[in-house]
Automatic annotation (TrEMBL):
Keyword Flavoprotein: no
Protein name: CCHC-type domain-containing protein
Annotated region described as Disordered, given as residue ranges: 229-281, 326-365
Annotated Pro residues bias: 252-266
Stretches assigned to coiled coil: none
UniProt xrefs under InterPro entries: Znf_CCHC
Domain CCHC-type: 166-180
Compositional bias per record (Basic residues), positions renumbered to this chain: 232-243
Domain of life the protein comes from: Eukaryota
Keyword Protein biosynthesis on entry: no
Keywords (A to Z) from UniProt: Metal-binding, Zinc, Zinc-finger
Length: 389
């Protein structure tokens, strides 16, 4: 049914079976009892509810809805059936309950005192039979905690609708006032079974809602209340939100690429470090000087240059070679050690050992000069490229 239509609930009595009646005849009987012309009811809709044994009339006209709500009796197949009608608000609504309201106020007085600016979302109110409990209908899916009835404030709770149970036929789904069977008793009030003997002996009752040993729909039954529409709507919205979150991948649930394993080398105790693995004293001094200079200038230390490191290593190796060459040259120039022992007998005295000739010394000196010149050339080239050692 359209949400914008006005809805009227029709509860027939007198044993009228909704499932066995034609909806066209029911609508014709309602329009005749409401004194409405067929031309003004062309857009009206009637829907039978066989489970609750009621009719729901939907109409876009507020005048037609008010006329339907005043009907108290309809005629079907030359038989009169009492009916109870009331308006149901259109759109999305929710219900609340207040208790302790005086029974002296009728429905019109209750609506006049309750519908006020302080209860902005309240649409209407109706009393449950002749009790002090009043059901309130609010617009939307929010029920306030407190409402004002005139100058009195009442605590408002969420309405929990009971599952309809019939004490006449013992079935679940409709109430006793709209039972489609005859008004005579068919089942026992205490046990809910059909009386098969006279006098009737009650058997152990079994609840049709929970299966426990009590009467169906008893106050002790924990399953006699329906889930409120407001709670059902919130659960459905939460379920849809959860499904949407599961369908949309999040960064936490997105697949993470596997890390490539690093090649593992030999254990630390079995590694053979090469001379180039450990930095020399000159390298350490140069790196410390660069770091201190960068800190004084307010800059972070620069990353080591691979070309500079290679030149430093070459300089250290060539310095070692120069040192070794100097040691060999000093050994060749030193006089040969004399023997300390005395030799008996005539001994021919050997002359002193001749020193290396000038040709050999010149060749060694030229090699050393060339090597030194090569070192200075490399250093000059590095100064020209980088401007520092």
């Amino acid at each position: 049914m359209p949400r914008s239509h006005n809805r009227v609930i029709v509860r027939p009595g007198g044993g009228l079976n909704v499932q066995a009646c034609s909806p066209h005849r029911i609508l014709a009987a309602l329009t005749m009892a409401a004194q409405l012309a067929p031309s003004v009811t062309e857009e009206d809709i009637i829907c039978p509810n066989s489970m609750q044994n009621i009719f729901v009339v939907s109409t876009p006209s507020a005048t037609n809805a008010a006329a339907y709500s005043r009907v108290t009796e309809i005629i079907l197949t030359d038989q009169r059936h009492p009916v109870t009608t009331y308006l149901s608000p259109a759109g999305i609504t929710s219900r609340g309950v207040i208790r302790g309201v005086d029974t002296d106020f009728d429905v019109a007085a209750l609506n006049r005192m309750l519908i006020q600016p302080r209860n902005s979302s309240l649409l209407g109110a109706r009393r449950i039979k002749n009790t002090e409990t009043v059901i309130l209908i609010f617009n939307g899916l929010k029920v306030p905690n407190y409402v004002y009835c005139g100058q009195v404030i009442y605590r408002c709770t969420l309405h929990r609708r009971q599952i309809d149970t019939c004490r006449t036929c013992g079935q679940v789904g409709h109430r006793q006032d709209v039972c489609p069977t005859l008004s005579t008793k068919e089942v026992c009030d205490h046990c809910g079974h059909l009386p098969t003997d006279n006098p009737h002996v009650c058997n152990q009752p079994v609840c049709a809602l929970c299966g426990e040993a009590h009467r169906t729909g008893d106050r002790e039954c924990r399953h006699r209340y329906q889930l409120p529409d407001l709670v059902r709507h919130h659960r459905q919205r939460r379920r849809r939100r959860k499904q949407a979150q599961q369908q949309t991948p999040t960064p936490a649930t997105s697949p993470v690429p596997a890390k490539t394993p690093k090649p593992q080398g030999p254990p630390l105790g079995q590694r053979n470090p090469t001379p180039t693995d450990q930095p020399t004293w000159a390298d350490k001094v140069a790196c410390k000087g660069e770091a201190h200079a960068a800190q004084r200038q307010g800059h972070s230390p620069q990353q080591p240059d691979p070309e500079l490191a290679q030149l430093k290593r070459m300089y250290a190796e060539q310095a070692k070679e120069i040192k070794s060459l100097k040691q060999e040259l000093a050994k060749q120039q030193a006089p040969e050690s004399r023997e300390g022992s005395i030799i008996s007998g005539p001994v021919s005295i050997r002359g002193a050992k001749k020193r290396a000739g000038p040709t050999l010394q010149a060749e060694e000196q030229s090699d050393f000069d060339r090597f030194t010149a090569n070192i200075y050339a490399i250093l000059e080239q590095y100064r020209g490229d980088h401007g520092r050692v």
